[in-house]
Amino acid sequence: MTKKIRKAVFPVAGLGTRFLPATKAVPKEMLTVVDRPVIQHVVDEARAAGIEHFIFVTGRNKHVIEDHFDMQYELDHTLSQRGKKREQEILASILPKAGTASFTRQQAPLGLGHAVWCARDIVGDEPFALLLPDMLHKGETPCLKEMIEAHAAHGGNHIAVAPVPEEETHQYGIVGVKDRAAKVSEITMMVEKPKQGTAPSNLHITGRYILQPSIFALLATQEKGAGNEIQLTDAMVTLAKSEKFHAVRFDGEIYDTGSKLGFLTANMAYALSDSSLKDAFRAEAKKLLG
Ligand code: G1P
Predict the structure, then answer these.
(1) Which atom of ligand 1 is nearest to the CA of 135?
(2) CB of 172 sitting under 6 A from ligand 1
(3) In total, how many domains does the chain have?
(4) What is the domain-level CATH number for residue 119?
């Protein structure tokens, strides 16, 4: 029997330099896609996949993320006095149950591998999910739910993957798989940001993982890699020598909200699937596009 995935880690310490000046005082994870911050879309995905405990690896200037997932008494009181039930319900629906959200700080920007390692004590000795908040995964079934199902069937470690154009492979972690046509396939190799023309395939790591806790001991001694940062992918390559890794192909849409184009496209896509907004938004978009 595989252990249940109860905890999810959200590394939210990144500086958001691709989005300055918007991210000077506002964390990039708090920029909104339609009516909720990016981080909430990702927490919603985790919740829909059955996650019970939410672990945020934050940094300086990120306290509004903590506030977003806390009770706001004055606001709740005012809404209640004004009879705004619907708005109160919206706020209640995003509030994690008492004791099910944890926050720890990454004290220096040493890379994704280091950020994940910062969560080791809160995760403890159990497999966990990892969701990179920049990457919104929009599909019929939440990406993490598919991965949790794959983990229940196969155990071990799981990475969500999707194809990217050849010329973009150097921007991502790339995996090679045994069976390219399968939804879930064993991973044969992984490489972080391969030089152009050297990628083992065009399947990129999309930012959703299920990892065994044995990754933490490897991260503790992981040397710096691509971009002079402690890379999660490098530690996974070592772990893959002793444990199984599966790729779970995500067939929905992925938006990199850390880039201006990805962020704007995500807003359009989510607006077009919001029943209260889509018709009016489509009409406005048509006017703009001519
Ligand atoms: C990180 C991972 C990379 C993955 C990417 C997805 O890179 O290291 O393997 O493909 O996220 O967004 P970063 O975007 O932090 O450079």
Answers:
(1) 12
(2) yes
(3) 1
(4) 3.90.550.10
